[in-house]
Design a protein that fits this description.
Length: 240
């Protein structure tokens, strides 16, 4: 008697369950990943190299405030949080290894200062208030434990002001990212100054003009650089 079982069915072609529906999609994702890695390497190197160029003295320690304060907000703008954290840490580790910028003051905690700014600045792209809680923690710590001038509180309030103003304007959103990044970095530095370095209260009023200048350079310089990168080197939208 002849076998009447159904013949085996071979699944192939477009109906194959593990075949890419779009053959070019895999190549496109690979290109995006390669481009991001190249940008991470470039921005990390820029952050490390600019740490050799001082823009101000660090009062209360042996460190210097350097030009890399303008690079960190660019990192925050260009990358999603994972890539921003990677670029920030790589640049900070190189800076730590070379002993530049704030490394003589904060030592092993230096990468955490950089990471705070880069990560919270990047998160601000998705939620414009992302850096505000950290700034408010800094405000509470400063008011309770520093003994310094109340005028310093303006730094901690600034991210809230720009977050409220940034809805609906692309230029203000960029400004908010730059401010969120540089103030988050400053908050981490301030908390180290309060709890690790034990700054005396009178020193904060002396530092204030220098800090205003440094953060202004950071915001203005990074805003200009973001405009350049946005026009010529902006990554694919899926990563913003």
């Amino acid at each position: 008697m002849a076998c009447t079982g159904s013949p085996s069915r071979r699944v192939s072609g477009a109906s194959y369950p593990f075949r890419h529906k779009n053959p070019g999609e895999g190549r496109q994702m690979s290109q995006i990943s390669s481009r991001q890695i190249a940008l991470v390497s470039t921005l990390s190197a820029m952050y490390a190299v600019t740490s050799f160029f001082p823009i101000s003295v660090y009062i209360g320690g042996e460190g210097l405030i350097t030009a890399n304060v303008m690079i960190l907000p660019v990192i925050a703008y260009l990358f999603n949080p994972v890539y921003a954290a990677a670029a920030s840490l790589i640049g900070a580790i190189v800076m730590f290894a070379t002993g530049t910028s704030i490394t003589p003051v904060y030592g092993l905690l230096t990468p955490l200062v950089t990471l705070s700014g880069g990560l919270l600045g990047s998160l601000t792209k998705k939620n414009r208030f992302a850096a505000v809680p950290f700034a408010l923690v800094g405000l509470g710590s400063y008011l309770l434990f520093s003994g310094g001038t109340p005028l310093w509180a303006i730094f901690y309030i600034l991210p809230l002001i720009t977050a409220l103003m940034s809805d609906g304007s692309s230029n203000l959103r960029i400004l908010n990212i730059c401010i969120a990044t540089t103030i988050s970095e400053l908050v981490a530095m301030d908390m180290g100054s309060i709890f690790l370095l034990d700054f005396p209260g009178f020193l904060w009023i002396i530092i204030l003009p220098f800090a205003i200048y440094e953060r202004a350079v950071s915001v203005i310089g990074s805003y200009a650089l973001v405009k350049v990168f946005k026009r010529y080197v902006t990554p694919p939208q899926r990563n913003l």
